[in-house]
Specification:
About 25% of the residues lie in helices and about 10% in strands. With about 375 residues, the protein is of the alpha/beta class. It has two domains: about 180 residues, Rossmann fold; about 150 residues, Alpha-Beta Complex (Aspartate Aminotransferase, domain 1), CATH 3.90.1150.140. The strands form two sheets. Strands 3-2-1-4-5-6 form a six-stranded parallel sheet, covered by helices on one side. Strands 7-9-8 form a three-stranded antiparallel sheet. The radius of gyration is 20 Å and the shape is globular.
Protein backbone atom coordinates (compact mmCIF):
# COMPACT_ATOMS: atom_id res chain seq x y z
CA UNK A 1 0.00 0.00 0.00
CA UNK A 2 0.85 3.67 -0.23
CA UNK A 3 0.53 6.18 2.62
CA UNK A 4 -0.51 9.84 2.34
CA UNK A 5 0.49 11.37 5.65
CA UNK A 6 2.44 14.13 7.39
CA UNK A 7 4.19 14.92 10.65
CA UNK A 8 1.02 14.72 12.75
CA UNK A 9 0.08 11.27 11.42
CA UNK A 10 0.83 9.49 14.69
CA UNK A 11 -1.05 7.25 17.09
CA UNK A 12 -1.86 8.07 20.71
CA UNK A 13 1.65 6.95 21.70
CA UNK A 14 3.15 9.28 19.03
CA UNK A 15 4.32 6.45 16.78
CA UNK A 16 4.35 7.50 13.09
CA UNK A 17 1.64 5.98 10.92
CA UNK A 18 4.21 4.37 8.64
CA UNK A 19 5.69 2.47 11.60
CA UNK A 20 2.26 1.46 12.89
CA UNK A 21 1.26 0.10 9.49
CA UNK A 22 4.49 -1.83 9.07
CA UNK A 23 4.23 -3.31 12.55
CA UNK A 24 0.71 -4.42 11.63
CA UNK A 25 2.12 -6.34 8.67
CA UNK A 26 1.42 -3.89 5.86
CA UNK A 27 3.95 -3.46 3.06
CA UNK A 28 4.30 0.32 2.69
CA UNK A 29 5.67 0.68 -0.83
CA UNK A 30 5.28 4.45 -1.33
CA UNK A 31 4.87 7.58 0.77
CA UNK A 32 3.01 10.73 -0.30
CA UNK A 33 3.37 14.16 1.30
CA UNK A 34 0.95 17.14 1.10
CA UNK A 35 1.88 20.83 1.39
CA UNK A 36 4.77 21.24 3.87
CA UNK A 37 6.04 17.79 2.90
CA UNK A 38 5.78 14.32 4.38
CA UNK A 39 7.67 15.52 7.46
CA UNK A 40 5.68 18.80 7.75
CA UNK A 41 8.91 20.79 7.68
CA UNK A 42 8.51 23.18 4.70
CA UNK A 43 6.95 26.62 5.01
CA UNK A 44 3.68 27.54 3.32
CA UNK A 45 3.59 27.69 -0.48
CA UNK A 46 7.13 26.28 -0.74
CA UNK A 47 7.42 23.57 -3.37
CA UNK A 48 8.64 20.23 -2.05
CA UNK A 49 10.52 17.80 -4.27
CA UNK A 50 9.88 14.07 -4.60
CA UNK A 51 12.41 11.37 -3.70
CA UNK A 52 11.48 8.56 -6.09
CA UNK A 53 14.87 6.85 -5.88
CA UNK A 54 14.81 6.29 -2.11
CA UNK A 55 14.26 2.82 -0.65
CA UNK A 56 10.62 3.74 -0.05
CA UNK A 57 9.77 6.41 -2.65
CA UNK A 58 8.46 9.69 -1.25
CA UNK A 59 6.25 11.56 -3.72
CA UNK A 60 5.43 15.22 -3.21
CA UNK A 61 1.89 16.41 -3.86
CA UNK A 62 2.89 20.05 -3.51
CA UNK A 63 5.49 21.18 -6.02
CA UNK A 64 6.15 24.29 -8.07
CA UNK A 65 2.90 24.50 -10.06
CA UNK A 66 -0.71 23.40 -9.96
CA UNK A 67 0.01 20.23 -11.95
CA UNK A 68 2.08 18.97 -9.01
CA UNK A 69 -0.97 18.86 -6.72
CA UNK A 70 -2.32 15.58 -8.10
CA UNK A 71 -0.52 12.23 -7.92
CA UNK A 72 0.65 10.78 -11.22
CA UNK A 73 -1.40 7.65 -12.05
CA UNK A 74 1.79 5.59 -12.44
CA UNK A 75 2.67 6.28 -8.81
CA UNK A 76 -0.46 4.39 -7.74
CA UNK A 77 -0.28 1.44 -10.11
CA UNK A 78 0.77 -1.76 -8.38
CA UNK A 79 -0.59 -0.60 -5.02
CA UNK A 80 -3.54 -2.45 -3.51
CA UNK A 81 -4.63 0.60 -1.56
CA UNK A 82 -3.75 4.14 -0.55
CA UNK A 83 -4.04 4.91 3.16
CA UNK A 84 -4.89 8.55 3.92
CA UNK A 85 -3.99 9.65 7.42
CA UNK A 86 -4.03 13.45 7.63
CA UNK A 87 -4.88 15.63 10.62
CA UNK A 88 -7.10 18.44 9.35
CA UNK A 89 -7.85 21.75 11.07
CA UNK A 90 -11.50 22.17 10.12
CA UNK A 91 -11.11 25.19 7.82
CA UNK A 92 -11.48 25.10 4.04
CA UNK A 93 -8.23 27.01 3.48
CA UNK A 94 -6.17 24.24 5.05
CA UNK A 95 -4.96 22.44 1.95
CA UNK A 96 -4.58 18.88 3.28
CA UNK A 97 -8.21 18.02 2.59
CA UNK A 98 -7.83 19.09 -1.04
CA UNK A 99 -4.71 16.96 -1.41
CA UNK A 100 -6.78 14.07 -0.09
CA UNK A 101 -9.60 14.90 -2.53
CA UNK A 102 -7.23 14.88 -5.51
CA UNK A 103 -5.75 11.58 -4.32
CA UNK A 104 -9.24 10.03 -4.09
CA UNK A 105 -10.07 11.26 -7.60
CA UNK A 106 -6.94 9.77 -9.18
CA UNK A 107 -7.15 6.54 -7.14
CA UNK A 108 -10.75 6.03 -8.28
CA UNK A 109 -9.71 6.57 -11.90
CA UNK A 110 -6.95 3.93 -11.78
CA UNK A 111 -8.88 1.46 -9.63
CA UNK A 112 -6.85 1.76 -6.42
CA UNK A 113 -8.78 1.45 -3.15
CA UNK A 114 -8.61 4.27 -0.61
CA UNK A 115 -8.52 3.68 3.14
CA UNK A 116 -9.18 6.80 5.22
CA UNK A 117 -8.14 6.78 8.85
CA UNK A 118 -10.55 9.35 10.23
CA UNK A 119 -9.44 11.92 12.80
CA UNK A 120 -11.22 14.51 14.97
CA UNK A 121 -12.02 17.95 13.64
CA UNK A 122 -10.23 20.15 16.22
CA UNK A 123 -13.08 22.69 16.01
CA UNK A 124 -15.77 20.08 16.57
CA UNK A 125 -18.54 19.04 14.21
CA UNK A 126 -21.37 21.38 15.18
CA UNK A 127 -20.67 24.99 14.27
CA UNK A 128 -20.39 26.25 10.69
CA UNK A 129 -19.10 29.66 9.58
CA UNK A 130 -18.66 31.45 6.28
CA UNK A 131 -20.51 30.95 3.01
CA UNK A 132 -19.25 28.55 0.34
CA UNK A 133 -17.30 30.20 -2.48
CA UNK A 134 -19.15 31.95 -5.26
CA UNK A 135 -18.78 30.79 -8.86
CA UNK A 136 -15.31 31.49 -10.24
CA UNK A 137 -13.53 31.53 -6.87
CA UNK A 138 -12.49 27.92 -6.40
CA UNK A 139 -8.78 27.28 -5.83
CA UNK A 140 -6.44 25.09 -3.79
CA UNK A 141 -7.74 26.88 -0.68
CA UNK A 142 -11.14 25.47 -1.62
CA UNK A 143 -11.46 23.11 -4.59
CA UNK A 144 -15.17 22.63 -3.86
CA UNK A 145 -17.68 25.16 -2.50
CA UNK A 146 -17.90 24.55 1.24
CA UNK A 147 -18.20 26.73 4.32
CA UNK A 148 -15.01 28.21 5.76
CA UNK A 149 -15.53 26.40 9.04
CA UNK A 150 -17.18 23.29 7.69
CA UNK A 151 -17.65 21.12 10.80
CA UNK A 152 -16.81 17.87 8.98
CA UNK A 153 -14.16 15.24 9.60
CA UNK A 154 -11.77 14.49 6.75
CA UNK A 155 -13.60 11.23 5.99
CA UNK A 156 -16.96 13.00 5.90
CA UNK A 157 -15.52 15.64 3.62
CA UNK A 158 -14.18 12.96 1.25
CA UNK A 159 -17.67 11.41 1.14
CA UNK A 160 -19.03 14.85 0.25
CA UNK A 161 -16.37 15.27 -2.45
CA UNK A 162 -17.21 11.83 -3.91
CA UNK A 163 -20.84 12.88 -4.22
CA UNK A 164 -19.83 16.15 -5.91
CA UNK A 165 -17.42 14.40 -8.28
CA UNK A 166 -19.90 11.57 -8.94
CA UNK A 167 -17.40 9.04 -7.60
CA UNK A 168 -18.85 5.90 -6.07
CA UNK A 169 -18.36 6.11 -2.31
CA UNK A 170 -17.52 2.42 -2.52
CA UNK A 171 -13.93 3.37 -3.38
CA UNK A 172 -13.58 4.63 0.21
CA UNK A 173 -12.93 2.33 3.14
CA UNK A 174 -13.41 4.60 6.14
CA UNK A 175 -11.90 3.55 9.46
CA UNK A 176 -14.25 5.41 11.77
CA UNK A 177 -13.26 6.96 15.06
CA UNK A 178 -14.38 5.22 18.22
CA UNK A 179 -16.19 7.52 20.63
CA UNK A 180 -16.09 10.79 18.66
CA UNK A 181 -19.21 12.93 18.77
CA UNK A 182 -19.93 16.12 16.88
CA UNK A 183 -19.96 18.28 20.01
CA UNK A 184 -16.50 17.16 21.13
CA UNK A 185 -13.72 19.71 21.03
CA UNK A 186 -10.11 18.60 20.80
CA UNK A 187 -9.44 18.84 24.54
CA UNK A 188 -12.30 16.38 25.08
CA UNK A 189 -10.44 13.62 23.21
CA UNK A 190 -7.36 13.31 25.46
CA UNK A 191 -5.28 13.04 22.29
CA UNK A 192 -1.85 14.72 22.16
CA UNK A 193 -1.61 17.80 19.96
CA UNK A 194 1.04 17.39 17.26
CA UNK A 195 1.44 20.38 14.99
CA UNK A 196 0.37 19.32 11.47
CA UNK A 197 2.23 22.21 9.81
CA UNK A 198 5.01 24.59 10.86
CA UNK A 199 2.64 27.46 11.66
CA UNK A 200 -0.01 25.45 13.49
CA UNK A 201 1.90 24.92 16.74
CA UNK A 202 -0.97 24.80 19.24
CA UNK A 203 -4.68 24.23 19.57
CA UNK A 204 -5.01 27.97 20.22
CA UNK A 205 -3.73 28.53 16.69
CA UNK A 206 -6.35 26.19 15.26
CA UNK A 207 -9.13 28.01 17.14
CA UNK A 208 -8.36 31.34 15.43
CA UNK A 209 -7.25 29.98 12.04
CA UNK A 210 -10.64 30.18 10.21
CA UNK A 211 -10.31 33.94 10.66
CA UNK A 212 -6.57 34.41 11.09
CA UNK A 213 -5.78 33.00 7.67
CA UNK A 214 -7.67 35.93 6.11
CA UNK A 215 -4.74 38.18 7.00
CA UNK A 216 -2.73 36.24 4.40
CA UNK A 217 -4.86 38.03 1.81
CA UNK A 218 -3.56 41.42 2.99
CA UNK A 219 -0.14 43.03 3.19
CA UNK A 220 -0.33 42.93 6.98
CA UNK A 221 1.57 40.25 8.88
CA UNK A 222 -0.45 37.22 10.03
CA UNK A 223 2.26 36.50 12.59
CA UNK A 224 4.34 34.07 10.54
CA UNK A 225 7.88 34.34 11.78
CA UNK A 226 6.67 34.56 15.39
CA UNK A 227 5.87 31.85 17.91
CA UNK A 228 2.12 32.67 17.83
CA UNK A 229 1.14 32.80 14.13
CA UNK A 230 -2.46 33.84 13.34
CA UNK A 231 -3.06 34.81 16.98
CA UNK A 232 -0.69 37.74 16.48
CA UNK A 233 -1.29 40.03 13.53
CA UNK A 234 -0.58 43.61 12.53
CA UNK A 235 1.83 45.78 10.59
CA UNK A 236 4.39 48.59 10.94
CA UNK A 237 2.70 51.68 12.30
CA UNK A 238 -0.77 50.13 12.29
CA UNK A 239 -3.31 52.02 14.42
CA UNK A 240 -4.91 49.33 16.60
CA UNK A 241 -7.24 51.74 18.37
CA UNK A 242 -10.29 50.81 16.27
CA UNK A 243 -9.72 47.13 17.09
CA UNK A 244 -9.94 47.73 20.82
CA UNK A 245 -13.34 49.40 20.36
CA UNK A 246 -14.93 46.36 18.71
CA UNK A 247 -17.46 44.26 20.60
CA UNK A 248 -16.24 40.74 19.84
CA UNK A 249 -17.59 37.75 21.74
CA UNK A 250 -15.57 34.96 23.33
CA UNK A 251 -12.21 36.65 22.82
CA UNK A 252 -10.02 39.37 24.31
CA UNK A 253 -7.62 41.52 22.28
CA UNK A 254 -4.29 42.56 23.71
CA UNK A 255 -2.32 45.33 21.94
CA UNK A 256 1.22 44.14 21.20
CA UNK A 257 4.36 44.84 19.24
CA UNK A 258 6.13 41.97 17.48
CA UNK A 259 8.96 41.49 14.99
CA UNK A 260 8.55 38.69 12.43
CA UNK A 261 11.75 36.80 11.68
CA UNK A 262 10.67 35.87 8.14
CA UNK A 263 8.03 36.53 5.47
CA UNK A 264 5.99 39.76 5.66
CA UNK A 265 7.77 42.67 7.40
CA UNK A 266 10.65 40.45 8.49
CA UNK A 267 12.91 42.30 10.92
CA UNK A 268 10.48 45.23 11.30
CA UNK A 269 8.53 46.10 14.41
CA UNK A 270 4.81 45.63 13.87
CA UNK A 271 1.97 47.09 15.90
CA UNK A 272 -0.95 44.75 16.30
CA UNK A 273 -2.97 42.59 18.63
CA UNK A 274 -2.91 39.11 20.05
CA UNK A 275 -6.22 37.26 20.29
CA UNK A 276 -6.87 35.38 23.52
CA UNK A 277 -9.88 33.09 23.12
CA UNK A 278 -11.86 33.12 26.36
CA UNK A 279 -14.86 31.03 25.27
CA UNK A 280 -14.40 28.75 22.24
CA UNK A 281 -18.13 27.95 22.17
CA UNK A 282 -19.02 31.61 21.69
CA UNK A 283 -16.03 32.78 19.63
CA UNK A 284 -16.65 33.11 15.89
CA UNK A 285 -13.18 33.49 14.32
CA UNK A 286 -14.30 34.15 10.75
CA UNK A 287 -16.64 36.98 11.69
CA UNK A 288 -14.14 38.36 14.22
CA UNK A 289 -11.31 38.72 11.71
CA UNK A 290 -13.59 40.15 9.02
CA UNK A 291 -14.71 42.82 11.47
CA UNK A 292 -11.16 43.52 12.62
CA UNK A 293 -9.80 43.87 9.09
CA UNK A 294 -12.73 46.09 8.14
CA UNK A 295 -11.97 48.29 11.15
CA UNK A 296 -8.30 48.98 10.32
CA UNK A 297 -7.81 48.57 6.57
CA UNK A 298 -9.65 51.77 5.50
CA UNK A 299 -6.91 53.77 7.26
CA UNK A 300 -4.22 51.86 5.32
CA UNK A 301 -3.29 53.31 1.88
CA UNK A 302 -5.09 51.34 -0.83
CA UNK A 303 -1.85 50.14 -2.41
CA UNK A 304 -0.75 48.69 0.95
CA UNK A 305 -3.94 46.77 1.78
CA UNK A 306 -4.25 43.64 -0.31
CA UNK A 307 -1.81 40.93 -1.26
CA UNK A 308 -1.19 41.08 -5.00
CA UNK A 309 1.31 38.24 -5.47
CA UNK A 310 0.19 34.85 -6.78
CA UNK A 311 -1.54 32.85 -4.07
CA UNK A 312 -1.75 29.06 -4.15
CA UNK A 313 -1.02 28.99 -7.90
CA UNK A 314 -3.64 31.64 -8.74
CA UNK A 315 -2.51 35.04 -10.01
CA UNK A 316 -5.59 36.50 -11.72
CA UNK A 317 -7.69 37.08 -8.58
CA UNK A 318 -6.71 38.68 -5.25
CA UNK A 319 -5.85 36.27 -2.47
CA UNK A 320 -8.47 37.80 -0.17
CA UNK A 321 -11.17 37.00 -2.74
CA UNK A 322 -10.06 33.36 -2.89
CA UNK A 323 -10.12 33.15 0.90
CA UNK A 324 -13.52 34.79 1.39
CA UNK A 325 -14.92 33.10 -1.71
CA UNK A 326 -15.76 36.24 -3.65
CA UNK A 327 -15.02 39.99 -4.10
CA UNK A 328 -17.72 41.32 -1.76
CA UNK A 329 -15.63 41.81 1.38
CA UNK A 330 -12.74 43.50 -0.41
CA UNK A 331 -15.14 45.76 -2.32
CA UNK A 332 -16.93 46.84 0.85
CA UNK A 333 -13.65 47.67 2.61
CA UNK A 334 -12.34 49.65 -0.36
CA UNK A 335 -15.64 51.54 -0.61
CA UNK A 336 -15.53 52.38 3.09
CA UNK A 337 -18.99 50.94 3.75
CA UNK A 338 -20.21 48.68 6.52
CA UNK A 339 -19.48 44.97 6.19
CA UNK A 340 -22.73 44.05 7.94
CA UNK A 341 -24.41 43.03 4.66
CA UNK A 342 -21.38 40.92 3.74
CA UNK A 343 -21.57 39.20 7.11
CA UNK A 344 -25.30 38.61 6.66
CA UNK A 345 -24.59 37.02 3.27
CA UNK A 346 -21.90 34.85 4.83
CA UNK A 347 -24.29 33.73 7.56
CA UNK A 348 -27.00 32.81 5.05
CA UNK A 349 -24.54 30.77 3.01
CA UNK A 350 -23.22 29.01 6.10
CA UNK A 351 -26.74 28.10 7.23
CA UNK A 352 -27.52 26.60 3.83
CA UNK A 353 -24.31 24.54 3.85
CA UNK A 354 -25.02 23.42 7.42
CA UNK A 355 -28.11 21.63 6.13
CA UNK A 356 -26.46 20.27 2.97
CA UNK A 357 -23.47 18.74 4.77
CA UNK A 358 -25.66 16.29 6.71
CA UNK A 359 -25.73 14.02 3.67
CA UNK A 360 -22.03 13.31 4.30
CA UNK A 361 -22.27 12.76 8.06
CA UNK A 362 -20.75 9.59 9.45
CA UNK A 363 -21.27 10.61 13.08
CA UNK A 364 -24.85 11.64 13.82
CA UNK A 365 -24.55 13.22 17.26
Amino acid sequence: MGLLAHGASVDRSLRPASSVLRQAGAHVRALFGPEHGFASAAQDMVGVGSQPASETPVYSLYGDDAQDLSPKPEWLRGLDAIVIDLQDIGSRYYTYVWTAALMVKVAAAVGTDVVILDRPNPLGGVRVEGAPQREGYLSFVGLHPIAVRHGLTIAELMCWVCDREQIDRGVLDVVEMDGWRRALEWWDTDLPWVMPSPNMPTLDTALVYPGGCLVEGTKLSEGRGTTRPFELWGGPGLDVGPLLELDLHGVSLRPVEFTPTFQKHAGRTCSGVQLHVTDPWVFRPYEAYLRMLAAVLPSVPSEERWRTEAYEFVSDRPAIDLLTGGPEFRASVDAGVSVDEVLAQEARGAAKFEDERRAAWIYEK
